Amino acid sequence: MRKQSYHYSSFFTFIFVFQFCLGSLFAQATTDLRTQTNINDNWLYLENNTPNLNDAQKAANWTGINLPHSWNSEDATDLNPGYRRDASWYQKQLNIAQIDPNQRYFLYFEGANVTTKVYVNGKEAGGHIGGYIGFTIDITNFIKEGNNAVFVRVDNSYDIEIIPSQKSDFFIYGGITRDVWLVSKYKNNIDNLKITTPQVSAKKASLQIIASTVNPENAKDLSLTVILNNPKGKKVAGKTVSVSGKTTHITFENIKNPELWDTQKPNLYTVTAVLSEKNKAKDSINEKVGFRWFEFKDHGPFYLNGKRLLLRGTHRHEEQAGVGAAMSNAQHRADMESIKKMGANFVRLAHYPQDPEVYKACDELGLLVWDELPWCRGGIGDELWKTNTRNMLAEIINQNYNHPSIIIWSLGNEMNWLPDFPDGDNTEKTNAFLTELNTIAHKMGPNRKTAIRKYYEGSQIVDVFSPSIWSGWYSGSYKSYQKAIDVYKKEYKHFIHAEYGGDSHVGRHSENPVTGENIIKAEGWEEAIVQTKVANIAQIGDWSENYIVDLFDWHLHISENDPTFVGNVQWAFKDFATPLRPEDDIPYMNQKGLTDRNGTPKDAYYVFKSYWSDEPFTYIESHTWTERQGPENTPRVLSVFSNCEKVTLYHEGKSLGEKQRNIASYPACGLTWDVTFKKGENALIAIGKNKDGKTVSDTLKVNYRFTKNESAVSLQLSSEKLKNGNYLVTAIAIDNNNLRCLDYEESVYFQCLKGGKTMKSQGTPTGSESIRMANGKASIEVIPDGLNIPIEMTVLN
């Protein structure tokens, strides 16, 4: 039997509980005002796929957990092929001390993947189809005073009818992966607010509010008061109107000299809506709004608030080492703050809507957002598939409608790849449905643009299009980038470049990485210079950090110096897990991140920061490249990435000269020096000075040798104790002369035999039992078991 599609819209759009007293109207406010209580703690979890509630209730092997939670938090990145795609149960005892007959009670799930059924006190209360988006369950008619048994069945089994396709290049984590809230509000309440800014300029703006209200008993004495406060909390407008139907329209005209929302000053106004009955406040919603306008110029750049803004972007997948998609709000926030600290002003949420904390952070930090429907690969589906996809798009727009950070509703990515259905790559059918989605998006959210990526046949349907350009990785050389974007700027009316970059393995470096012309040069030891052309660097390249540094440096060199370019969006900010890449240097990891899966920056992060960030810094390339070799008296080009106006490099206390940073120069904006290393330890200091005279510095010690290692013959283990009490166990490949083999890149396998356990299945440079060596070195973190037993480790290759 095929599944039926069903759809639950979120009934509220607020994030915080709002209690207030606003003038005499609210002096009589009672406990009728809505409450929202986080109920993440003290759940039970049952890894059992039974569809029968009675069987789940009788099971004895429930375990205690807190939310968010995913049963794929580590099995997605372990060394066993595949990951659990099945159903599990969650249980919570929900204590409600007193039930008010005039209140309605709800459970709000910010996200559960992929399909969910909710039972309260033995009865099915509701459910939801599709992950990555919030949904509400009305539990009013199922609860009682005292303890209430809540059971939730979540299923991430393969389901052809629900996007995203399992052929996508990321894991579909199962579980209640986001926060859950208990909400109560008066029977007559505000369902949601939709806020638009129809007219915005530097001199004046207008604000339009559509309030949907619930009034089951058709009460006649309802009124709605809306107050607009500026970013400092001062009231700038207010209005009270009577409520007669399901929707109420309120407009504020001629808001003078609005404090505009932009990426540098993300000014947020507050809209407070209060529903009153007989002049008593019964319900309230508190929303943030930003005044801004934007435009994609035809065949040209992007404008925000009337000024050209180069979109400096990255992509973000929702996952973290050790927890998968079940991230805390603090972890979500840390990702977005790191993106902003790098200097980005744009983020594409790939390839699905993300946690509410992410949008909140983007609003507050000043990050423009590309919000994406998870139609990722799989082609066009049947009627049930279409219904579920339409419903998800509607949910995304309804829930994220008010965020000033969002400028794009993306309708899909690589949609016609690897069809799941017969004839699923039919262009005519795909375009017909894409046109339907485009119409829905413009009707429901007319204040944004629509976009897709890498479905060329539909490029003229949406407002903004991104072709696929992977210069220097999947095709061509990175120095062909300007030619590629010049072609596409002419071809597509509103062109943006989403996705570029390549994989890099932390700690792997090459003295002579592949050049921008796709040539591998000799390292300098050989008498004859050999040059070899590389066709596909993704397959043949060395995955070194310094190749990716050069690639990104070139892309930014082009984009930052092109006055007619919209901007580009690097793929991806953080390493993320994928079932499609078991052979990667860290198995099952897409290693294209600017940070590792824990959020620790790689070298490439500092390249972006040097172009984009205003915070003065210097970074010597590279802090993960402290063991090097080369012929004696052979200078090495050393780059310093910095946003300072001038930088001086010191080698062994001697100045190698001050250089002026020039954005038109490549590499490193001209901040390069020839360094002739001495044998042994070399001390390097880079001191940068900005235009205000402030100085910043970076130091690095490099151990250099003049003897080239021979072939590796053995692995050597060592350990050091970390500040957290764990141990870092390191394997070094050595030759017959006991030299570290800096060219050794084979996989090694760590195993703890006794005394502790490895930090495995983390997908990080020190959190995988199987990992390819980086310049002859690999490490793993080991947790002692606390029994004072000596830790015994083995490493194999």
Q: What share of residues are in beta strands?
A: 25-35%
Q: Rg, please?
A: 28 Å
**Low-pLDDT ranges:** 1-31
On the 0-100 scale, what is the average pLDDT? Answer: 93
CATH architecture classification of the largest domain: Alpha-Beta Barrel
Alpha-beta classification: mainly beta
Based on Cα principal axes, name the global outline.
Answer: globular
Strand order of the largest sheet: 26-25-24-23-22-21-30-27
CATH class of the largest domain: Alpha Beta
Helix share, percent = 10-25%
**Might you state the CATH topology name of the largest domain?**
TIM Barrel
What's the β-strand tally?
Answer: 47
Q: CATH homologous superfamily of the largest domain - what is it?
A: Glycosidases
- Alpha carbon gap, first and last residue: 49 Å
Main beta sheet: strand number and arrangement? 8 strands, parallel
